[in-house]
């Protein structure tokens, strides 16, 4: 996978993860272009489109669009599965996730994504394991915070 | 609670936390930019504080702003500060910020190296994890080089959590620092068999990604991946492996053959669409690569097409789209199989989704034939009418034209129909493709002589109705067709019925609103029309009518003379003068028609693009001879202009140079040719593969379609192409009848038109083709252009650097810094010795060559291979792959009828969704287990997995209920069965002492029915160097170790490597057996020299090699129908066992049997499964495994009763451990 973007129906970017090194300028250009293209598509249309030499796989969940760019030989369906899996993870973590959760806890959304994908490849296929890793890391953070809170 | 409140108040002490920022931005929608710049100022203040918590908060806010598009690169150093915070909370934020905004251009990135190294080796796995995650996003070549070794060490970390991350990030490291690939690869390969499924799948991921880019270096891994593919149940992993095979097969067609069966099995059995789609795609790729040599895979293609049909019929748009996409791949090689689904694809044209419609259109292009062209185009025309949106309609239009005109109108049998289609297309409003239609009209009218009369009548009609077409001319592309119409009517005016009317139509004032270039053609062609009318009238003696027409021209032409377009104006005034002159002559009653018509006499014929080249050289003309002396070599380019004039003068003097001797001429000619050959800009007259038309220098040879049309040419009114469809059908029917009749007479009517007429009507493709032949332009290439694919490879391709031969042993210079690591590749044969490194340098080329050779004549080669025995180790390796590849899985060969009660149950239904079981609980426990272990046990851990496993199982017994709950929960998770099996290793302990530990695994050798290969892993546990290892066994009558020729039965076989401290390596030994129906035990000794600082000692280790019956079995996939036949055959003996106290899930149980006893599942229904395997000597072994409450019963059938009972005993033993 080359990158993943989350954006709202209004075209506001909510999350971006790039697995290929690109300059900020290029990233912005791509984001703008893709957001426009994807938003212009009708709801009944299929989730794939060919874009430059990449394939774009996107899916809409409530008001959010999840959009991934994969290479020519990659499997579109498994990418959809990845998106779905990520949404499930968010859902489990936040408890029926909504756009606001991701806006206000955007760093958590990133942490979950990072536990799920690494360098554009799936690193953990078990939802439980991902969530466990996140919870334990959170726990670590929590306890440290408390330590810190107490000491300062 | 109290703590939380304290924490809350502390949060509020910060100027603003992230939530405040987000809220603030949302509340300042009108002046967002202003608000944010204010916030950034605050953040800058916060960053200046010493408190790391404040800094971290600031960096967190910056990360959010970065996402909104604000530049935060100025804070890079602060991000590094936060990254290096000791608290995980802050570190996490720091690394997140870094991963979002660091890139190769970030200059402070080099400051992070040590911090990252520190974090990587942190005792806290989450610190390490966060560092790895971050690094995966911003790794630079420098970081990759400096940290490669640290990450490589992490690949063997005790915690799978770290291992899997480390393995995955290695891919990024390889990309940035390709030198690390070779040293790291052995360990990466090792991870393919990691006990943790997550790590295993990560390793598969990485190797698959590597192999996809440079497949040839990974061909030797094919057997390993094949094994993984047949044993894995994890769809994520399977998809990757299958994709990898898709990349490998073009290099090794035999691999494709081997793959077809397991892949088709998967296609049959899987319920996961993503996996199905991947399999279908790979099967297609395989079949494409095999297409030349393998004629009888139509069943596989049929299966793929069938499955794709199901996808296309699905209501899910995504599946529809992908189905069509994959279909178009099949179309290229197997058009016939796709054509039968024409109906379905036409249906897709009605889809709401434009992307699906476009896919369907692509498919249609390749699906047309003479038979169905009219029908397909008719459907498309309906869609053109219905289509909303000009883009799609234009797409349809171009597709229609493409479809019809492809390969020189190969599929058009009725050109009247085609012209009508083109005319109908002109009614499209607002299309951009008027010029396309026009070009087609011109092309057809010129090249199909027989159609001209009809074409002219249609064009005349178009001109007459020009007002309809050109209603809003300027922005309307469709008026281009008037250009074609005017030209056709003018050029072929002799076919015009109502020339007067057409001429008048062309002279209408409205015409002046057309674009200039069209008017110009109008003007030119009205004279042609005028000329032919004139002639007609004169011949009929209607002088007045002739004068009238002249008068009309003189009256109307001035409107064109006034045109602003130069071309129109010039032509019009010229012609006006001409006609005025004609008028004068007419008044004098001089017949002028003959002379006027002479202006346009002669027929225009289409010229083949290569015609010029084919003009034969007149006799006696030597094109290579110098017309005059070549300038001397010293002549510089500046003088060239002079020579040109010189040239001109001397041209006629050519014959005056006969004194130039032949030899000199020949020499110069040669030199000239040489020079031309080296000059890439010189267009050569490359020898054309087509025959030269030597005898007919004119244009006569240019093929013109001549068709005897049996349909009436005159169609009243604006024709509808539909009529032609009907007519064509009738015509074809008639022809068929005629043909049948004529068949009898055929001998009499051998020659001439009759024959031709007849052949035209037959529907076979070849019969009509020659009539339509027209030369096609091909792109010229300089002669020395290479036909290589190098061109399409981007020189900057990051993957190119990873094109590295991985089989070559590591040279010392290649090792990663710090780590001393020498774990060479597994050596495949006992006889081979470690060859000196220098010898290997030329290997890759040699290997490739060999490959090609082998592919050419694999059949013969196989025989030879056996004789031409091991010369070099690399050759050996090569053969190993060959060896593996040549052993095609036996398709249930011994099939005879009989009946079995269990088969009906087994065959009954597809095991859909069967694999959906959750195994997380167990994984979790394992992880905990591992977590508790101290790092001391790190090395031993892998070997101890067996014990661990049994521990796990005990635990899972306790938690059984719990895990069942989860099973229920997980079913709703979608289609993927991603929870993999618990770790299993087939390596058993052979012997162990303080110096060395050996484990072994026995694999049957399918090619040789009396051989098995024993792979032994030697692990040096000491701090000394182990060398001169030699392995010897006491042969039994039945079982013997294969020793190099010339050595006695008492000689040991040297292990082809030495072991530095802490290193392990694998060697393989071949054993021959006579009978395989019973298990065997062989005693043996391993002798070796231990060398350390104090000196060296000779040591011995005794062992017992246990050949279980299962080790004679080879996992062989079997189709359920073949399996059923086998059971019915009645040749098999039967035996059963029952084991009680089984608590593990059925899925695990099957996996265990598959893994340890080399079986494959044929079919599974609920808690009942049929399994199959085959021994190296060809015994079929069939199992029916049924799970009861707490017990398992296994019914076995086998061609040998002893083997069966032994196998079942072994199984019993395995199962009783569960």
Automatic annotation (TrEMBL), chain A:
Q: Name one GO biological process term.
A: intracellular protein transport
What membrane topology does the UniProt entry give? Peripheral membrane protein
Please state where this protein is localized: Cytoplasmic vesicle membrane; Golgi apparatus; Membrane, Clathrin-coated pit
The cross-references to InterPro entries, in alphabetical order and at most eight, read:
AP1_sigma, AP_complex_ssu, AP_mu_sigma_su, Clathrin_sm-chain_CS, Longin-like_dom_sf
Regarding protein family, the annotation reads:
Belongs to the adaptor complexes small subunit family.
Assembly with partners or alone: Adaptor protein complex 1 (AP-1) is a heterotetramer composed of two large adaptins (gamma-type subunit AP1G1 and beta-type subunit AP1B1), a medium adaptin (mu-type subunit AP1M1 or AP1M2) and a small adaptin (sigma-type subunit AP1S1 or AP1S2 or AP1S3). Binds to MUC1.
On the tree of life, the source organism's domain of life is: Eukaryota
Question: Which UniProt keywords are present, listed alphabetically?
Answer: Coated pit, Cytoplasmic vesicle, Golgi apparatus, Membrane, Protein transport, Transport
Would the keyword Protein transport be found if you checked this record's keyword annotation? yes
GO CC, alphabetical: AP-1 adaptor complex; clathrin-coated pit
**Name of the molecule in the record:** AP complex subunit sigma
């Amino acid at each position: 996978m080359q990158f993943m973007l989350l954006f709202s129906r209004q075209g506001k970017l909510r999350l971006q993860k790039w697995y290929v090194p690109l300059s900020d300028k290029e990233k912005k250009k791509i984001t703008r272009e893709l957001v426009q293209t994807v938003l212009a598509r009708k709801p009944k249309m299929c989730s794939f489109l060919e874009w430059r030499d990449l394939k774009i796989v996107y899916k809409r969940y409530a008001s959010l669009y999840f959009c991934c760019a994969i290479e020519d030989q990659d499997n579109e369906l498994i990418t959809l599965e990845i998106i779905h899996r990520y949404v499930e993870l968010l859902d489990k973590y936040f408890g029926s996730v909504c756009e606001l959760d991701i806006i206000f806890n955007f760093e958590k959304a990133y942490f979950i994504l990072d536990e799920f994908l690494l360098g554009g490849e799936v690193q953990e296929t078990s939802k439980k394991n991902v969530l466990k890793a996140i919870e334990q890391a959170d726990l670590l953070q929590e306890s440290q915070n408390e330590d810190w809170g107490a000491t300062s | 609670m109290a703590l939380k409140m304290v924490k809350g108040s502390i949060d509020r002490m910060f100027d603003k936390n992230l939530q405040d920022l987000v809220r603030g931005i949302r509340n300042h929608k009108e002046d967002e930019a202003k608000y944010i710049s204010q916030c950034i100022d605050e953040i800058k203040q916060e960053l200046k504080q010493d408190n790391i918590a404040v800094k971290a908060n600031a960096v967190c806010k910056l990360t959010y702003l970065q996402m909104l598009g604000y530049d935060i690169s100025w804070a890079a150093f602060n991000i590094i500060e936060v990254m290096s915070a000791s608290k995980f909370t802050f570190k996490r934020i720091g690394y997140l910020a870094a991963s979002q905004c660091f890139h190769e251009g970030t200059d402070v990135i080099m400051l992070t190296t040590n911090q990252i190294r520190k974090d990587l080796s942190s005792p806290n796995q989450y610190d390490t994890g966060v560092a790895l995650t971050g690094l995966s996003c911003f790794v630079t070549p420098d970081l990759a080089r400096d940290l490669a070794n640290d990450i490589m060490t992490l690949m063997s970390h005790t915690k799978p959590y770290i291992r899997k991350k480390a393995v995955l990030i290695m891919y990024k490291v390889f990309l940035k620092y390709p030198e690390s690939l070779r040293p790291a690869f052995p360990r990466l390969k090792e991870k393919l068999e990691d006990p943790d499924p997550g790590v295993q799948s990560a390793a598969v991921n990485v190797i698959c990604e590597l192999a996809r880019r440079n497949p040839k270096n990974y061909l030797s891994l094919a057997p390993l991946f094949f094994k993984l593919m047949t044993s894995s149940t994890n769809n994520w992993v399977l998809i990757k492996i299958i994709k990898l095979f898709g990349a490998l097969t073009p290099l090794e067609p035999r691999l494709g053959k081997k793959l077809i069966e397991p892949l088709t099995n998967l296609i049959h059995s899987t319920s996961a669409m993503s996996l199905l789609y991947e399999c279908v795609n790979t099967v297609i790729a395989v079949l494409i690569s095999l297409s030349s040599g393998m004629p009888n895979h139509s069943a596989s293609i049929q299966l793929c097409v069938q499955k794709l049909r199901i996808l296309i019929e699905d209501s899910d748009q995504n599946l529809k789209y992908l189905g069509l996409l994959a279909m178009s791949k099949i179309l290229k090689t197997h058009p016939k199989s796709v054509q039968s689904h024409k109906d379905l694809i036409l249906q897709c044209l009605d889809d709401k989704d434009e992307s699906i419609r476009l896919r369907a259109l692509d498919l249609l292009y390749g699906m047309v034939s003479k038979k169905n062209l009219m029908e397909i185009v008719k459907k498309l025309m309906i869609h053109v009418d219905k289509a909303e949106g000009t883009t799609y309609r234009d797409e349809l239009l171009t597709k229609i034209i493409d479809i019809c005109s492809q390969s020189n109108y190969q599929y058009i049998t009725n050109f009247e129909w085609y012209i009508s289609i083109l005319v109908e297309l002109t009614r499209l409003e607002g299309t951009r493709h008027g010029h396309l239609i026009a070009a087609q009209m011109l092309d057809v009218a010129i090249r199909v002589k027989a159609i001209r009369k009809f074409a002219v009548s249609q064009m005349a009609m178009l001109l007459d109705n020009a007002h309809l077409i050109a209603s809003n001319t300027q922005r309307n592309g469709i008026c281009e067709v008037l250009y074609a119409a005017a030209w056709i009517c003018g050029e072929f005016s002799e076919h015009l019925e109502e020339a007067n009317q057409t001429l008048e139509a062309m002279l209408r004032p409205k015409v002046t609103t057309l674009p200039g270039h069209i008017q110009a053609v109008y003007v030119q062609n009205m004279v042609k029309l005028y000329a032919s009318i004139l002639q007609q009238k004169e011949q009929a003696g209607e002088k007045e009518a002739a004068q009238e027409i002249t008068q009309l021209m003189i009256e109307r032409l001035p409107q064109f003379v006034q045109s602003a377009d130069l071309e129109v104006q010039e032509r019009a005034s010229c012609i006006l003068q001409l006609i005025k002159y004609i008028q004068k002559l007419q008044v004098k009653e001089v017949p002028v028609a003959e002379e006027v018509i002479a202006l346009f006499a002669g027929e225009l014929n289409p010229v083949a693009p290569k015609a010029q080249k084919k003009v034969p050289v007149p006799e006696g003309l030597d094109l290579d001879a110098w017309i005059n002396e070549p300038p001397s070599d010293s002549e510089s380019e500046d003088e060239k202009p002079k020579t040109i004039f010189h040239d001109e003068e001397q041209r006629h003097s050519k014959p005056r140079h006969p004194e130039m001797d032949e030899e000199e001429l020949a020499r110069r000619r040669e030199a000239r040719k040489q020079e031309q050959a080296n000059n890439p800009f010189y267009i050569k007259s490359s020898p054309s593969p087509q025959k030269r038309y030597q005898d007919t220098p004119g244009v006569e040879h240019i093929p013109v379609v001549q068709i005897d049309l049996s349909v009436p040419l005159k169609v009243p009114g604006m024709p509808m192409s539909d009529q032609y469809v009907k007519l064509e059908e009738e015509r074809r029917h008639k022809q068929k009848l005629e043909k049948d009749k004529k068949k009898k007479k055929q001998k009499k009517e051998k020659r001439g038109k009759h024959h031709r007429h007849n052949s035209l009507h037959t529907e076979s493709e070849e019969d009509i083709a020659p009539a339509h032949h027209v030369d096609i332009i091909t792109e010229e290439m300089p002669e020395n252009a290479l036909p290589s694919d190098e061109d399409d490879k981007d020189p900057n391709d990051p993957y190119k650097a990873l094109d590295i031969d991985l089989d070559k042993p590591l040279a010392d210079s290649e090792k990663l810094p710090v780590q001393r690591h020498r774990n060479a590749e597994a050596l495949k044969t006992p006889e081979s010795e470690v060859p000196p490194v220098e010898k290997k340098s030329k290997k890759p080329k040699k290997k490739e060559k060999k490959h090609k050779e082998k592919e050419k004549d694999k059949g013969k080669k196989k025989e030879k291979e056996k004789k031409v025995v091991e010369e070099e180790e690399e050759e050996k390796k090569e053969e190993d792959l060959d060896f593996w590849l040549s052993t095609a899985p036996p398709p249930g060969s011994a099939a005879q009828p009989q009946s079995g009660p269990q088969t009906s149950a087994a065959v009954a239904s597809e095991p859909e969704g069967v694999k959906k079981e959750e195994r997380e609980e167990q994984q979790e426990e394992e992880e905990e287990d591992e977590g508790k272990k101290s790092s001391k046990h790190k090395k031993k851990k892998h070997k101890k997995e067996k014990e661990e496993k049994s521990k796990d199982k005990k635990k899972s017994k306790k938690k059984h209920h719990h895990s069942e709950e989860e099973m229920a929960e997980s079913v709703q998770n979608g289609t993927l069965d991603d929870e993999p099996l618990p770790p299993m290793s087939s390596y058993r302990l052979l012997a162990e002492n303080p110096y060395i530990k050996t484990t072994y695994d026995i694999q049957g050798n399918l090619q040789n029915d009396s051989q098995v290969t024993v792979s032994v892993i030697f692990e040096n546990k000491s701090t000394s160097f182990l060398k001169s290892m030699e392995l010897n066994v006491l042969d039994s009558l039945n079982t013997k170790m294969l020793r190099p020729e010339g050595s006695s039965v008492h000689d040991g076989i040297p292990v082809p490597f030495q072991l530095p401290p802490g290193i392990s390596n694998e060697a393989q030994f071949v054993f021959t057996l006579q009978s395989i129906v019973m298990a065997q035990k062989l005693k043996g000794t391993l002798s070796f020299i231990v060398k350390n600082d104090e000196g060296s000692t000779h040591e011995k280790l005794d062992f017992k090699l246990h050949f279980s019956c299962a080790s004679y079995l080879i996992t062989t996939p079997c189709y359920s129908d073949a399996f059923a036949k086998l059971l019915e055959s009645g040749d098999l003996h039967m035996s059963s066992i029952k084991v009680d106290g089984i608590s593990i899930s059925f899925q695990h149980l099957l996996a265990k049997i598959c893994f340890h006893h080399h079986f494959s599942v044929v079919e599974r229904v609920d808690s009942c499964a049929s399994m199959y395997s085959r021994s190296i000597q060809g015994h079929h072994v069939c199992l029916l495994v049924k799970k009861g409450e707490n017990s398992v019963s296994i019914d076995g059938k086998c061609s040998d009763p002893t083997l069966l009972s032994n196998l079942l005993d072994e199984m019993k033993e395995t199962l009783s451990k569960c």
